[in-house]
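In this section we walk through a basic example: taking a raw amino acid sequence and producing a predicted 3D structure, encoded as discrete structure tokens. The instruction is simple. Fold the sequence below.
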Amino acid sequence: MLENFDNIWNGRKSSPLSDRTSCFLSADGSSWYAVPAEKTQDNCLNFQVHMDTDKLYLARLEPYTLNDLNRLIVDIRDHPLVDITTIGQTVEGRELEIIRVGKPEAPYRVLLRARSHAWEPGGNWVIQGLIRSLLQDDDQARQYLDRYCVYIMPMANKDGVVRGYTRFNIMGKDLNRDWDRPADERYAPENHALENWLNSMVQMGMCPHLGIDLHNDCGGNLHISHPENGFERYLARMKQFENLLFQHTWFTEGSTGSNFRNPATFGEGLFERYGIIACILELNCNWIAGLGKIPYGKDWELLGKQMCRVFFEYFNI
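The resulting token sequence is shown next.
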């Protein structure tokens, strides 16, 4: 039985579990398989295992570790279409990078961020699938990168990932909050670093045209916020983006309702402060309806590959 799921939502008692919640097991910490689990009335998680070895690794989702990210960086760092820039450090001194995939002179720019919440690995798998697809050096990838360039903050909460945290950084800050104001470098140096990078891009006339923060939850919706000012164009572009996800990916869950607002989160903050069309894309951690299966890393990698086409069509304006 796994316990202590009552206080991970910024002090608000709420369950991240559902009737479809699974667990992932591995005998070697490398090859993972899903087993069904049962949510109890007191918000615990029951599951049964059969141990053939003297140890067994358990994870809520198929893990993506800092070592996995480092291996990806080693694989791609020398590619002519890749630039990796250190933009700051976490609270504990781990380097934060922006990975550029594509040509900086491309007409359009996408900003992606993953892993602001440490226990939500789906975004890392999506990013890995997207990067590897864009670097395949085929006609399709070249066509995509003639139209847009992707800037990626691959693991915002590295300290939390290494330490096995849920939502917060080492200072107890949720990195998907307080984007309506300048970040406090003492408590959220991860956000401060990204904010400084954004400011420099704006000064160079290279502000991103689209921003996406990747997360995991039990719903899998596209969080389209409804800011107070200037939201008509924002909503129209988000509707186009949602429709393209329906057309070109396995995404089926749809977007949040017309009254949805989540002030000071990444999506709304980037729109109100920088004019960037931005959103939160949640990845259902329990079930991929479009594929009819429990999500594995390879399924989220597929979504990343499919999103290459989504961005291409989104900027076909």
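Looking at the output, two observations stand out. The first strand starts at residue 22 and ends at 26. The CA atoms of residues 51 and 233 lie 55 Å apart. In the next section we compare this with other chains.
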